[in-house]
Amino acid sequence: MRLLALDTATEALAVALADGAWGRSINASGGAQASATLLPQLLDLLAGRGLAPADLQGIACGQGPGAFTGLRTAVSVAQGLALGIGCPVWLLDSLLIVAEDARRQASQDEGFTLWVAMDARMDEVYAGHYRRQGGRWQVLRAPALYDLPTLHTLWRAAPPPACAGSAIDAFGERLALGEALLWSRQADRAAALLALAREAVRDQAGVTPDQALPLYLRDKVALTTAERDAQKAGSAA
């Protein structure tokens, strides 16, 4: 399958192209730049293989959780391209991309179990629990939005053996990870994206473009001035 994959759920932009056994992945700056640079990156990737968008047979997209604007950017581009081409969309768990990258860094497969904890800002964490078994990922706890006390309650009951994600550096010692193995930074997000996209196509049917929707775990996207002041006072205390 000629498959295009894209994700802008974090400050990094990840794009990848598979053409049969051939594949190429690219990591670039995302964040506020993603809306302006995503399409040119995708078109350059296709042109480098001598392909046009009409040659694609499927599109894989990180649906979140993640940055509100980033999710809208990736999903809207995936929807528009898939609608114009008439191809299906495979929606990927953006936390699972972090898990796959950590698994590759650890050079592990069977039985590899970890939590992913991503900084969600507003003193909260996007987190999910995953295990690699039988050459496939299993979701032990689906992605959710946590404050630290709630997350720590879960971890006291069952301490995580490993953890990956931006919350490790963002929260530091406030994140009670005990003796867990840690991967705070991703080595090659785009390569992990491509691997998950291939697995998704192998294991499940895609959705129509109108069903390709971002995963929002938070309705409120900003703190009021009073809430920010209270948070600063709490951190200082």
TrEMBL record:
What's the source species for this entry? Answer: Ideonella aquatica
Q: Does the keyword tRNA processing apply?
A: no
- Is Cell membrane among this UniProt entry's keywords? no
Record's InterPro entries? ATPase_NBD, Gcp-like_dom, T6A_TsaB
Q: What is its EC number?
A: 2.3.1.234
> What GO MF annotations does this protein's record show?
tRNA N(6)-L-threonylcarbamoyladenine synthase activity
Q: Where is the Gcp-like domain?
A: 35-144
SUPFAM superfamilies from the xrefs? Actin-like ATPase domain
Task: Name the UniProt key words of this record, in alphabetical order.
Answer: Acyltransferase, Transferase
Q: Which GO terms describe its biological process?
A: tRNA threonylcarbamoyladenosine modification
Q: Which Pfam families match?
A: TsaD (PF00814)
The entry's protein name is: tRNA (Adenosine(37)-N6)-threonylcarbamoyltransferase complex dimerization subunit type 1 TsaB
